[in-house]
Each structure stands twice: as C-alpha cells, then as structure tokens.
Amino acid sequence: MKATKNDKGIQIRRRIKAFIGRWVGLRQSWWRYVRNANCDYYKSQTDFLYILISNYHVIEKSLAMPDFEPGHALERVKVVVGDLIKYRELGFDLHHPQYIAAMQAIREYTCVHHNLGFSLPKDLLEEIDFLFKDVEIPEHVQPTVSKEQFFANVQSSFPEFARSRHSVRSYSDKEISEDTLKAVVNLARTTPTGCNRQPNRTYVVCDNSMIRKIVNLQGGGRGFAEKANKLLVVTSAIDAFSYNEYNEVWKAGGMYTMNLLYALHSYQIGACPLMWNGMRSQDKALREILNIPSKEEVVMIIAAGYPLDKFRYVTSVRNNVEDSLIIVR
Ligand SMILES: Cc1cc2nc3c(=O)[nH]c(=O)nc-3n(C[C@H](O)[C@H](O)[C@H](O)COP(=O)(O)O)c2cc1C
Fold first, then answer.
1. Total structural domains in the chain?
2. pTM listed for this prediction
3. pLDDT tens, 53-71?
4. In this predicted structure, what is the pLDDT of residue 1?
5. Atom 6 of ligand 1 has which residue's CA nearest to it?
6. Pair 304, 202: CB distance under 8 Å
7. pLDDT at 15
8. Residue 66: CB within 6 Å of ligand 1?
9. Which residue has a Cα nearest atom 18 of ligand 1?
10. Residue 166 CA, closest ligand 1 atom number
11. Is residue 261 part of a domain?
C-alpha cells in the first residue's frame, strides 16, 4: 500500500517521538547503571557475593567440563581463595549458601588435583588449610548422572520438572531432528508477550564450522559449546514495539528463552544459555553469519544437544529464598 503525504507526516512524528523517548530512557537507565553497577567488592556482603559467585562458578564449571584439564582455572582458584579470606576478615555470614558452595568448590578442586597427583602451589594449599581450619563444610561434589537419571522428572509435576533442569555442557553427536526442533519451538511459543505481539525468533545453527565461529565470538561457551549439536540464537523484533516500549525486546526475548530452555528439557535435550553482550564488532559479525536484520535484537544464544550417556552438571546453588522475596504489606 502506498503511503499518502499525511501517512508520511504521522510516520515522521512517530520517529521523532521514538528518538526522544529512547534518548530520555537511555539517559535514565544509563545513570542508574553507572551509579549501581558492581565495581566495589567490599561495599556490602551482597555485592561481595555477586563477585564471589561469578568467580567460583568458573571453578565448578571447570570441574564439570566434559574434557577436564588438570590445572585449568587455577588462576581463578587463587582469586576465590583470596576473596574467601577477605570475606571472613570482613565478618560476613559464614553460613550463607554461597560461601559454603565456594568453599566446597575449592575443596573439590584440591581433592581432584590431589587424586590426580597434580601439585598445586604450596602457598595456595596453606591458605586453603587456613580457610578450613575452624569451619565445618558439608561434603559436596558436582553431580555425575546418567541421562536417564537427569531426565527422570520430565513428565513429573511442574516443581519437580523445574528443579530437574540444569545447564548441560556435555553433548553427544546425536542429531536433533528438524521435527523435534519444530516441536520445541512450538512449545516455547506459548510464552506470553505484550499485547500478544510475538516478536521472538529462533535461528537454529546446524553447521559445525558456523557453530564454532559463533562460540568463538561469544566467548563464555568455549570448551564445550563447540560440541553442541545445534546453537539456538534467540532474537526479538524491535518493529513489534512502539517508541515508548524500548526495553520490551529484552523482556520478550528473556521470557521466551526460559520457555525454550524448559521446552528443550521436556524433549530430553541438554541445553546451556550463553551470555550475549553484543559488543559492536561481535554483533556485526553474528548478524553477517546468520543474516539477522537490523530490526531484530539478539537476546541470547543457547547451546543444545542430547547429553552423553553419563555426564556431570554444575550444582549452581541458589541463594536463600529470603534474599529474593520482598513482601510488601
Ligand atoms: C544470561 C545468561 C548467560 C549465561 N552465560 C553463560 C556462558 O557464557 N557460559 C556458560 O557456561 N554458562 C552460561 N550461563 C549458564 C549459567 O551459568 C547457569 O544458568 C547458572 O549457573 C544456573 O545454573 P543452571 O542453569 O544449571 O540452573 C548463562 C546463563 C544465563 C541466564
């Protein structure tokens, strides 16, 4: 349909509104971000824990990698041990689940290396002894399961189903068929969207060399995501939203991604969401590889594949429910 002069005038006015709306919104969220982004280790226990978790998570991930390499993540172990000492000095809660999980990851790392006969630095071992000298930390290692055990609850009630999903990073080369992918995406499409506009898209990457290229661009999936049978790239369409809805793509895409993860789990496909920060050059390269139009934002990448017969997954302990629940009376 050809636009009339009047239509064009309306369009221009809307574009100007979109420009001003986005600018005002960006300034607001930019300031809030600059003021509150986590740059200070020692401001509070909560801030400290954000950093501690993201560092010890690298260690637990390393312990559960399909091709575990002795000595891998050693630098991160040194950082976490230093942080745990500091955490104690600052008098923070030694019963917090994340402090305990970090200590458990350190102990598991030390035991695995001891059993392999791989010597860790003497001063590091002394610091670790110091950390454990007067506290009782329950035994825990990253779980090893068969794929049957892992998927035992996919037909169970929602609480059991949801608790049985974990990120899987060990994939077999069994093919995920197009029919299965279609069924998965069909299920994920039950995600609610603002005014039912359904802006989400899933690009399925099948080619191995393309998968490797994208994993290299992404970074956080290196060491396992190259072996995924498929990469799913979730995008959300900006043109579904108007000038004052500039954050909707992220909400829509985030909600859809979670549903997609559950849909994959229900089809007994292992999956791991992968961070996509989309810095300028990365974003450009990914768009070129997959031919993604500029009107879509890339929200998330998911590595997916049928798991190995037996594999380890990462515990990823959750905080106390009181840390996330605020009841306003
Ligand atoms: C936004 C987002 C980005 C993530 N990025 C990565 C990543 O780059 N590499 C990785 O191995 N895991 C990544 N993960 C997986 C998380 O580490 C994992 O979801 C978290 O530890 C909770 O564990 P669970 O998925 O087993 O419940 C990411 C998860 C989310 C939600």
1. 2
2. 0.93
3. 999 999 999 999 988 889 9
4. 64
5. 274
6. no
7. 84
8. no
9. 167
10. 26
11. yes
- Give nearest CA residue, ligand 1 atom 9: 220
Q: Output the six-digit token pair for 39.
A: 């740059």
269, 180 Cβ separation under 8 angstroms: yes
Rg, Å, the chain Cα set: 23
The CB of 265 under 6 Å from ligand 1? The reply is: no
Tens-digit pLDDT profile for residues 295-323: 999 999 999 999 999 999 999 999 999 98
Looking at the fold, whether 232 and 270 belong to one and the same domain comes out as yes
| Token pair recorded at residue 208 | 């191995």
* Pair of tokens at residue 235: 């995008």
Residue 293, Cα to own-chain centre: how many angstroms?
24
Backbone angles phi, psi at 147, to 5 degrees: -65, -30
**Is 52 a domain residue?**
yes
CA dihedral defined by 209, 226, 286, 219, rounded to 10 degrees? -140
| Residue of 99, 131, 128, 87 whose CA lies nearest to 111 | 128
Residue 262 has pLDDT above 90, yes or no: yes
Q: Report helix, strand or coil for 304.
A: strand
Q: In which domain, by residue range, is 270 found?
A: 146-312
61 Cβ below 6 A of ligand 1 = yes
Does residue 57 sit in the same domain as residue 168? no
137 and 173 part of one domain: no
Beta carbons of 316 and 169 less than 8 angstroms apart: no
Q: How far is the CA of 306 from the centre of ligand 1 (A)?
A: 18
**Which runs of consecutive H residues, i.e. helices, occur in 220-290?**
248-266, 280-290
Sequence-ordered list of residues with C-beta below 8 angstroms from that of 252, at least 6 positions apart, any chain? 191, 193, 194, 197, 199, 200, 236, 240
Tell how far the Cα of 24 is from the centroid of ligand 1, in angstroms. Answer: 32
Whether residue 219 has pLDDT greater than 80: yes
What lies within 8 Å, CB to CB, of 295 at 6+ separation is 237, 238, 239
How do residues 173-184 score in pLDDT, each as one tens digit?
999 999 999 999
Closest atom of ligand 1 to 276 CA is: 3
Altogether, the residues listed in the chain come to a count of: 329
- Best mutation site among 65, 259, 274 for ligand 1 pocket (most ligand atoms within 8 Å of CB): 274
Q: Is residue 16 part of a domain?
A: no
